[in-house]
């Protein structure tokens, strides 16, 4: 198969994933507003809530023009709402997906608002407050998607996943399940960016890709006729969280702020604005 340069991947990602984006946040939402609650102490930058984010994950966080400029999506909008709740300005510290947790631990940011599962491994090294219910989904070409009805249907198949993600970990776990069932292991290939997992399937390098249900629906919609979601392969049994450093004073304050934004309907409205089911934020 032809190899893609970084520039080509970026251009293809824009065409495939962002062609129909319309759920943009207003840049003015980043500005200060009167505090509705006392801001947490010890912030990385005074007067700002700094958030580590990887803007490569539509519809949760992505660039409005595909590669630079304003970061939009559910997580970005909710991060701005969180900052506004405290009368702060939201500041985004852009990093790669596998750099999110290191960025938090080295105090490049106060929190990660970036599509991370509340997995046991992450909760062992950081605190997290729930913000959205989620689970893994399988995408494949329309002709193949119907063949995936349960996890073991992925045995012996080539599967793409984002590097260092819980979805990649799920396929690694499935390898043991396939072996126990007397089947061949799935062949996992990990990519730094979600756009590259889409390209892997479109170019025939992988037969399927695993992604969260939130992003999977968006990817299928933006690639109608080329990608389809295989429904019900995995249970929706995980939760996205906003991560803070372990035992940091900001942790309980942030958790209470998210509860307040859920109670007053702010998070549900942000979900609607980003064409997501508002029920996904009912995690409190």
Automatic annotation (TrEMBL):
Keywords: Signal. Residues 1-24 form the signal peptide. The keyword Cell membrane does not apply. Residues 48-278 form the Solute-binding protein family 3/N-terminal domain. It holds the Pfam family SBP_bac_3. InterPro entries: Solute-binding_3/MltF_N. This is Transporter substrate-binding domain-containing protein. It comes from Arthrobacter cavernae. The lineage of its organism: Bacteria, Bacillati, Actinomycetota, Actinomycetes, Micrococcales.
């Amino acid at each position: 198969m032809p190899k893609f340069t970084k520039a080509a991947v970026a251009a293809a990602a824009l065409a495939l994933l962002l062609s129909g984006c319309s759920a943009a946040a207003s840049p003015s939402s980043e500005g200060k507003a009167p505090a509705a609650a006392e801001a947490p102490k010890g912030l990385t930058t005074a007067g700002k809530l700094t958030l580590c984010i990887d803007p490569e994950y539509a519809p949760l966080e992505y660039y409005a023009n595909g590669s630079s400029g304003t970061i939009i999506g559910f997580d970005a909008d909710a991060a701005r709402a969180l900052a506004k709740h405290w009368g702060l300005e939201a500041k985004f510290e852009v990093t790669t997906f596998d750099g999110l947790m290191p960025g938090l631990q080295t105090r490049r940011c106060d929190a990660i608002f970036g599509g991370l599962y509340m997995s046991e491994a992450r909760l062992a090294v950081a605190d997290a407050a729930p913000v959205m219910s989620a689970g893994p989904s399988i995408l494949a070409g329309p002709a193949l998607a119907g063949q995936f009805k349960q996890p073991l249907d992925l045995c012996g198949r080539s599967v793409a996943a984002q590097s260092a993600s819980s979805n990649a970990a799920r396929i690694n776990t499935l390898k043991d399940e396939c072996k126990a069932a007397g089947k061949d292991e799935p062949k996992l290939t990990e990519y730094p960016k979600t756009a590259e997992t889409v390209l892997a399937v479109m170019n025939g390098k992988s037969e399927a890709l695993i992604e969260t249900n939130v992003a999977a629906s968006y990817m299928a919609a933006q690639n109608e006729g080329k990608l389809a979601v295989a429904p019900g392969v995995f249970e929706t049994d995980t939760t996205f969280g906003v991560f803070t450093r372990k035992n940091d004073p900001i942790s309980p304050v942030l958790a209470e702020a998210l509860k307040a934004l859920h109670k007053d309907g702010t998070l549900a409205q942000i979900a609607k604005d980003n064409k997501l089911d508002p029920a996904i934020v009912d995690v409190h």
